[in-house]
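So, can you check what follows?
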Amino acid sequence: MEFKATQIAEILGGEIEGNPSVTVSTLSKIEEGEQGSMTFLSNPKYTNYIYSTNASVVIVNKDFVPTQPINATLIRVEDAYQAFTKLLEFYNEYKNQKTGIEQPVSISESSSIGDDPYIGAFTYIGHNVKIGHNVKIYPNCYIGDNVTVKDNTTLYAGVKVYADCEIGNHCKIHAGAVIGADGFGFAPTESGAYKTIPQIGNVIVKDHVDIGANTTIDRATMGSTVIEQGVKIDNLTQIAHNVTIGKNTVIASQTGIAGSTTVGENCMFGGQVGVAGHLKIGNNVKISAKTGIGKNVKDGEVLRGIPAMDYSDFNKSYVYFKKLPTIVKELKNK
């Protein structure tokens, strides 16, 4: 679908400089812009590309002053980066406006589906499932019995939601994620073998949560594993049984959080962070990549290392870590 510069300027509340009738049908990086594409300039590092780009429309800040002729039509806005982000959201919503129920699918007669659904082929929806309005369920998804999926939520291809779990409004769960598999619960027996402890709880995912591809969130042994509102979880992350993740916490790829740990609000976890079980992580905590957490963490701490230590202390200590071979050699020669 094509959009005129005038339409884009209206969406963004911007001012046009150049041909108002020029049309675009795709988005691009400024250095890779082609005819019919739209891009943006916000980082001064890329300013030189605006004079050579073949993009038809470029979004710029209102205070941008060109030093050479520009072939593209400009749309001037207060913040070019934020404006382009808004367009990406608009484009993504437009691109994903699928509706209807494809065939074959299996939907229990006891389940209810709201208005304007999209249900892709080879999807299974179990008994007593409640699907809200404008929900999109891509092909090969599995929705177990008694699951609730609320309004404006998207489940991408191959998502599995086990029985009794709850997914909130405006969530995105990406391909291959598994919500509600059994927690890792086993009890040793006298023979040395392990007996499975039934996991009879569920997972509750609150509103505006994003869950990355192939991430797994285990059901509680009893009660609920809870992902609070606004949490963003990257791909390939493991959240164990009875964990609670606080509001607006961001967790990067390959992080693992063991059972019954509580993570506070507004935390940031780097990639490959490991958190032991039955711990309490405070609010506004920042944990650097590859850090191992083995004890409770207070509000506002910034941690790094295995085991974790204060970020500044780690950096100071690292200066000496690198010099250890030299220090040992000097000690031996004394």
Q: What stands out?
A: The CA atoms of residues 4 and 23 lie 4 Å apart. The helical segments are 5-12, 80-95, 311-332. The chain has two domains: 3-95, 159-312. The domain at 159-312 is CATH 2.160.10.10 (UDP N-Acetylglucosamine Acyltransferase; domain 1).
